[in-house]
Every structure is written in structure tokens, then in C-alpha cells.
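Section handout, structural biology tutorial.
Before the tutorial, make sure you can parse a SMILES string by hand: atoms, branches in parentheses, ring closures as digits. In the record below the ligand is zinc ion, and the chain has 463 residues. In the tutorial you will relate the predicted C-alpha cells back to the input. Do not try to memorize them.
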Amino acid sequence: MLDVLISNAEIIYANNRYKASVGVQDGVIAGIYQPGAEPEAGEVVDASNLALIPGAVDMHSHHREGGEPGGYAYKENIHTATMQCAAGGVTTSVAMPNVTPPPNTVPRLEQLFGVYERESIIDFNVNPAGTIPEEIPNLAQHGIGAFKVFMVVDTGRDYPHMPGIGVHDHGKLMEIMEACAAANVPLMVHPHDQPLMDYIEKKFWDRGERDCLAYAKAYAANDGVIWETAIQFLIRLQAATGVHLHLLHVQTAGTVDMIRRAKDAGQRVTAEVNPWAIFLGSDWSEIERLGSYALSYWVPEENSPALWGGLCDGTIDIVATDHAPHTREEKEIGWEDGWKAHTGTPSAQYYMSLLFDAASKGKISQERVVEATSTRPAQIFGVHNKGRIEVGYDADLVLVDLNAEKEIRDEDVLSLIGWSPYAGRTLKGWPVRTFVRGTTVYRDGKVVGKKGHGRQAKARYPG
Ligand SMILES: [Zn+2]
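Predicted structure of the complex:
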């Protein structure tokens, strides 16, 4: 007898779409059945009017709580971060290393995993900082999906890109790429041209322009030159080292072309786009209205067709949240000094709905939404047993009401910060129930998952 039978759902994953029932036993997908031909089950979930998708595998999230108490956990802790994930249809969330202390050695990584095992209600992993090349072979033995390097060291604040996780020295980056290539683990890079940015931002400051709008314009200056010189350099260095390079924060039309050419040439390059680049920072009026609350970065609208085109045709492989919560105080200061406001926007709770809403408007197919958020990230990073609705895979499943319409409201945000830059938007397409390895963690508007349910979603990099 099955534990759970999800009956008569519209299954959507990758290029598949069909009506079927899915059986779950011991946390795993035990069978896929024609409606009417299902075995008995302890619980039967009638999904006749719902879509069933593999839960999102979010490879890029900032959870704030580190291996030691204090740090940035006042912004968000692992429990509240994973509550948002459960509500948003994310069943595996992978953390970035800008926490205290940054996981750049094995003891620090193990210490951080210990906190996740205690606090997380969904499955998790961590992308360690690849800033110490000699640690890379050891860290690579711990089931990680990727290393992360920021090519950025902030001016005027020590977060989110604090010293110790940022590398912009080209020789050092080459050494890190060689070490990742030898360990056969992908390297994720936040592309940035720091010396160029130093020059560009000084021009703004010399003119007395320091507010959030100046900040937005500085990062987008000269058609995104700081992004494009960095990505061009990284793609060339990939060819030199053979590393699997995963480019974060793709946001200019020019870089979509560069990535397409690199892929055509057979280079091991993959890429991601973040919700803020296609739903938020792409609208200047939102930046004027919300200031630093809307800023990760400004992505001038003329880039939108290339970003959507690249996402739909797979040039941009995946969507990852870059979920990055900050307090209101840390954003408010941006009206005066955009360089002092902490960069980034929260999105884990709403990005699947933003994407399904976009699908309802014909901007992307529902199948591609599922592929880009679940199947493809699991495949790229070798996340074991995730991202597919097939027998033997983990029963990480999300029931979605594709016709439900609901407004995002600050008071519904399940985080410590209590705000969303998307508040006030009405979206079509909402998760109604989320399973992590067969256990319900979210149901009918309530997070019911328990701390300690989450396990490391180990990666076995396919090579
Ligand atoms: Zn990030």
C-alpha cells in the first residue's frame, strides 16, 4: 500500500505534460499510474484541477544564518528562509557562502551543515566559497554542487560582498578555476569588473550623485560594461582552464550573445537569470518608486527581449532566486546613499508564481518554467534524485493551482524582514501543497513542515 497517492494530476515537467496519478512510498516516487488504475494508498490527494511539478531546486539563495551565532541571522534564519521556500514551491534550496564564518574550509562547511540539519524544513545544500584554492579538493568531497566566487568587493559597506569571499585578481581566479576543474566541480561566479567599477562610481560621486538612482545607473553604465567585460574575461578563462563555469546574474543582451557563442563553440558554460532581472529591475518606474528595495540591479528594459529569449531557448539554462533579504533600515538609507544600502531582493516565496504568471501571459511555456527551475539545475549540478517526476526519484512534489489569482502582501511574507518588492502585484499560478521526500511541508496556505526534516541534497556531479 502506498503512503500517498496524488490522483489525476496534470503532470508538467521538462517537455512532458500528461494526466496521471503519482504514488509515493518511503519518500520516493513509487509509481506513475493511469487514472483509474491506481493501487491503494493511506492518503489520496485529489489533484484533478491541479498541476503537479517537481519542486524547485534553487541553486542560489542567501539564507544569512551562518555556522556561528550572530552574523547576519537578524536578516533571516534558516528556518524562516525554508518556510518561504516551502510556501513558494522550492523543495531544495542551496545557500551562498556570504555568511559568518564563510564556508571556505571543511570544518566550517560541516559546522554550517549542522545548523541546516537542525533548522531546515526542506532539503538543502551549500555552495562553499572557492577562495582558498588548496581547500577546493577537500571541500569537493562533501557532496556539494558548486563553488562560488564573487568578483566583487564592496565599497562603503561590508555586506553582502565582504572581504574574504571576493576575488578579482585574474591570476587568483585562474588558480581557482584550475582547482575546480581538477576537482570536477562547477564554479559559480558573480561577474564584476571591480577596477572599472571603481572608475565609474567615482565619476558619479564626483558629481555629488550618491542616491539609489545613481547607484542603479552606475552599475548599468555604458550598456552594462562592467558585466560584459567580466563575462567576456570569464568565458576566455574557461577555455584556458576547462572548468565548468556557471555565470550568475545574467542581465545584458550582450552577455546572452556571448554565452550563446561560447555554447556553440562547445565550451562548458552554463548560466542563470534571477527574478529581479526580468520582473523588477527591468522597470525603471519600480526603481523610482521603491528605491533600494527594488535593487539588486537596474536592468534597462532594452535587455528584456534578449533575456526572455535566452531563457526560453535554453541559452540561459536556469532561473535561480538570488533570494537576498535585508531589513527595511538597510534599504531605507538608499534614498540618501545607494552605496550604503545592502544589495539584493527577497524572492524565494514568490518566484515560481512570478514565472507561472508570466507563462499565463505567454512569455514562457509552463514546461520551460519547470525545466529551468527544477530539472535543469538538478542536472547541471548533479543533484542526486531531484528534479524529475520518475519512479525512484525523491517525492519532492508541488501541486500548483495554475488558475488561482492572489495578491502578494507584505503581511504574508514568511520572513523576518516582513516585506516583498513584489507586494501589490496580483499573480496567476500558486503552489497549494508542497512535499519534500513525501512529507507535506506546506498545505492550504500554512507551512506545516518541521525543523530538522531537511537533508543535504547531495550532488554527484555528472562530469
Ligand atoms: Zn547572490
